[in-house]
């Protein structure tokens, strides 16, 4: 049978579903196993050109089993709409697949435990562009502790697993909900997404380096442990420091 974009998409979807079934049984982080109602694997188009990576499920996501369905998710939908896209076209995942208790920040060891799921998702979906939402995803995939305020809006090509990925860090939607000026910045950064998608996927390494996000990324997170909030930040953050935005 000839391999068409459709057959490839169906095969990827089946592999992602198998991966999601495996992830649903993951018990690597005892505290998260306690705090979660379910594993929030990720959702969307298995053959998406655009993938978003957020931080961790909040209460709504934990309840529904789908990433970005709370207030941050509604804003993400709006931002997508503003650039003429819909959620069904993209793939959405998080650094952590389980909701941390009290929506606390992900811990470096949890990020390390969870990173192979994200790496597999990136490899299976093979998006042309990966937009990291906020500090946690950005630090993990850049393998560097530079804060989002310094690197947002600057696309770059980084190695993730066996692939080279075009990465585009932007503020987390929670940061925009919390602080209005961030919304304008986020809007401006989103406006560049269609142009970046037109560039297509970056050239891939032959045989490729194998750098798991967890190798350097989890260490990058360990350097200050501050991230922006998920749903907790949207609802209850009291200061910018708590959001870890800058
Ligand atoms: N914040 C995140 O980072 N991910 C979600 O899925 C929801 C809120």
How would you describe the shape? globular
Strand percentage lies at 5-15%
Helix content estimate? 40-55%
Any idea what the radius of gyration is?
Answer: 17 Å
Strand order of the largest sheet: 1-3-2-4-6-5
The poorly predicted ranges are 209-216, 222-246
Biggest sheet features: 6 strands, mixed
The domain tally reads: 1
How many helical stretches? Answer: 13
Distance between the termini: 52 Å
> At the fourth CATH level, what is the homologous superfamily?
Uracil-DNA glycosylase-like domain
Mean pLDDT: 87
Q: Look at the structure and give the CATH class.
A: Alpha Beta
Give me the strand/helix succession.
HHEEHHEHEHHEEHHHHHH
How many β-strands, per DSSP?
6
Architecture per CATH nomenclature, i.e. the level-2 architecture: 3-Layer(aba) Sandwich
Structural classification? alpha/beta
Unique bound compounds:
uracil
CATH fold naming: Uracil-DNA Glycosylase, subunit E
Short key terms for the protein model shown above:
246 residues, alpha/beta, 6-stranded mixed beta sheet, 6 strands, 48% helix, globular, disordered C terminus, binds uracil
């Amino acid at each position: 049978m000839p391999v068409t974009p459709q057959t490839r998409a169906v095969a990827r979807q089946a592999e992602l579903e198998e991966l999601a079934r495996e992830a649903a049984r993951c018990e690597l982080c005892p505290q998260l196993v306690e705090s979660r109602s379910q594993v929030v694997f990720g959702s969307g188009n298995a053959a998406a050109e655009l993938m978003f990576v957020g931080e961790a499920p909040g209460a709504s996501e934990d309840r529904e089993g789908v990433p970005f369905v709370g207030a941050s998710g509604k804003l993400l939908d709006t931002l997508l709409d503003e650039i003429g896209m819909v959620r069904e076209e993209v793939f959405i995942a998080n650094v952590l697949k389980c909701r941390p208790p009290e929506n606390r920040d992900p811990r470096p060891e949890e990020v390390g435990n969870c990173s192979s799921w994200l790496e597999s998702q990136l490899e299976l979906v093979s998006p042309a562009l990966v937009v990291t939402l906020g500090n946690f995803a950005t630090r993990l995939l850049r393998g560097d502790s530079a804060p989002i305020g310094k690197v947002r809006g600057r696309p770059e090509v980084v190695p993730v697993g066996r692939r080279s990925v075009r990465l585009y860090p932007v503020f987390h939607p929670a940061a925009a909900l919390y602080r209005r000026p961030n919304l304008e910045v986020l809007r401006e950064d989103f406006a560049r997404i269609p142009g970046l998608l037109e560039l297509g996927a970056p050239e891939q390494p032959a045989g490729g380096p194998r750098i798991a996000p967890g190798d350097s990324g989890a260490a990058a997170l360990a350097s200050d442990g501050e991230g922006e909030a998920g749903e907790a930040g949207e609802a209850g953050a009291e200061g910018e420091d708590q959001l870890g935005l800058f």
